[in-house]
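Exam revision sheet. Question 4 asks you to relate a sequence to its structure. Input first:
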Amino acid sequence: MESDGELEALDAAAVRTHLKKCAECRRRQMEILEALGAVSEHHFAQPLPPIESARASLVSRLRPSHTQRYLAVGALAAALLLLVWHWAPERANYELPLAALTPGAVNPAFACAAETERPPIPNAVAMEVFRRYGIHNPQPRTYEVDYLIPPDLGGSGDPHNLWPQPYNAGIWTARVKDALEDRLRTMVCEGSISLAVAQEEIASDWIGAYRKHFHTHEPLPDHVAFVKDQPWE
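Answer key, C-alpha cells:
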C-alpha cells in the first residue's frame, strides 16, 4: 500500500517505524509476502495453450483470465495489508513517540516558582492523536495521551507535543517517564542542568535520559508504580 501511494507520508513513516520495532508485525508481513509470492507463482505456472491455437482465439481467452487473476492478486494484497495496518497499531507499544508525528513543542514562558498545572487534554485532541498514530479503537486506561516535553518543563499542549504512551504495558511506561520529568525539573530549578538541555534530552530520547540520570539500564522498582498523571479514559 505504501509503495502504491495509498498512505500519507506520515502514516507511511509510522508503518515503517512500527515494523522496525514490532517482531510480530514483521512476521505477519513475511507471511503476507509469502502468500503473495505463492499466488504469483501459481499464476505464472499455469500452462499456455498449444502454440498451434489461433492467435485471435488465444488472445480472447487469455486476456480475461489474466485480468481476473491480477484483480484477485491485487484484492488479496490490499486485504492482507489493510489487515496488518489495522491490526498492528492496536497492539503498538509507542514507548518512544514517532519523531515525524511528535517532534515536541514548547512555550516561551517557564518559571521554577511553582509547577505548571497540566491542563486536561480535550477528548477531540486525544482522538486525533490516536488517529495519527493509527490507533483506531483505543482502550480506556491503556494509554496516557502524554506530553513529550511536559508543561512543568515548558512543554505546550500543541498536538505535535502529544503521543499515546503506554500506561501499564511494557517496561518504559508513562509512569516511568513521569519520574524522569520530576527529576529533570528538580535539576533545572537547582541549576545543575539548563532548561534547553532538559527539553532536548526528554524530546529526543527520554529513555536514554532516564538511564543517564538514574544510572540504571532498567526502570527502578519505585518508578514502575509511580503515579502522577492519570491514563486516558
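Marking note for examiners. The longest helix spans residues 55-90.
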